[in-house]
Design brief:
Radius of gyration: 18 Å
Strand content: under 5%
Number of helices: 13
Number of domains: 1
Number of strands: 2
Largest sheet: 2 strands, antiparallel
Oligomer: single chain
Strand order of the largest sheet: 1-2
Order of helices and strands: HHHHHHEEHHHHHHH
């Protein structure tokens, strides 16, 4: 169980860094351009790792990663767009409320959540409600990016159960299948939208590094799946918004309203309680 905890927390750290750097660059260079190079960078990394390992898949259950990739990538597109239009410190915790989905899935499949986890779900929902609204002249309104953040939460939430099943079968190949599928989804979006995709020098290096961080998070989560229940590993991995919020505060000096700050704290606290 300790190994599952450490692997899942490692995934949250890697995702937190990747989910700050990627959207940060996406604001400057465009969502699809950044996502394309991030996916390609991550794909090269996991392909090298699988090739060095030199073993075929242990179980064809790794194909559950296809389902996880479609849901997770659609969630990531919404997340990037939400971060591009809204405040990272608000969007990231709302997207992190995706931890509720695997807990509900765990209950449906026989897990018994603790009183703290149930309290965490209620706290996270209350936090989202507060963080989602900002003070404007004439009253309060829905903060920019909140709708996209909620879509991201759904996409991320439904990533966890199939990826847990794939990772329990073979974490290395599930990571490879995931990244191949995610890259295909992004390439299809690029083919339809035809954005500018050229990226050079340091921006390219930074974006590829963000993609590698995201891939590392996927591999660590997949590896944790063989050592713990989906309701445990998923919610621990969902602590990544803490890292993203801290980086946004330190690097970008983001500031939000008082009620929204309370909402962000409540959302993060709810995610922590869910993982208790």
């Amino acid at each position: 169980m300790t190994e599952a905890l450490l692997l899942a927390l490692g995934a949250s750290l890697a995702w937190g860094v990747g989910d700050f750097v990627g959207p940060w660059q996406g604001k400057t260079f465009g969502v699809l351009r950044v996502m394309l190079w991030a996916q390609l960078g991550g794909l090269v990394l996991v392909a090298i790792l699988v090739a060095v390992r030199g073993r075929p898949p242990d179980d064809w259950a790794v194909l559950w990663a296809v389902v996880a990739a479609v849901s997770g990538t659609l969630g990531l597109v919404a997340f990037y767009r939400g971060m591009a239009t809204g405040t990272m410190s608000v969007v990231a915790p709302i997207a992190g409320a995706s931890a509720i989905v695997p807990v509900v899935y765990g209950i449906a499949t026989g897990d018994n959540p603790s009183a703290l986890q149930l309290a965490g779900m209620a706290t996270a929902i209350a936090g989202v409600a507060l963080a989602a609204r900002e003070q404007q002249p004439g009253g309060r309104r829905l903060a920019a990016g909140v709708g996209l953040a909620l879509l991201a939460a759904v996409g991320f939430g439904f990533y966890f159960p199939p990826m847990h099943a794939a990772g329990a079968a073979d974490p290395w190949w599930s990571g490879f299948v995931f990244r191949v599928t995610a890259t295909i989804v992004v390439l299809a979006a690029v083919a339809v939208r035809r954005p500018q995709v050229r990226l050079v020098r340091w921006p390219l290096v930074i974006v590829v590094a963000a993609g590698c961080a995201d891939t590392l998070g996927n591999l660590l989560f997949a590896a944790s799946s063989g050592h713990g229940a989906v309701s445990l590993t998923s919610v621990l991995a969902s602590l990544y918004p803490v890292v993203t919020v801290v980086l946004a505060a330190v690097v970008l000096k983001e500031r939000i309203g008082g009620a929204q700050r309370v909402g962000v704290v409540l959302t993060l606290a709810g995610i922590v309680l869910i993982s208790a």
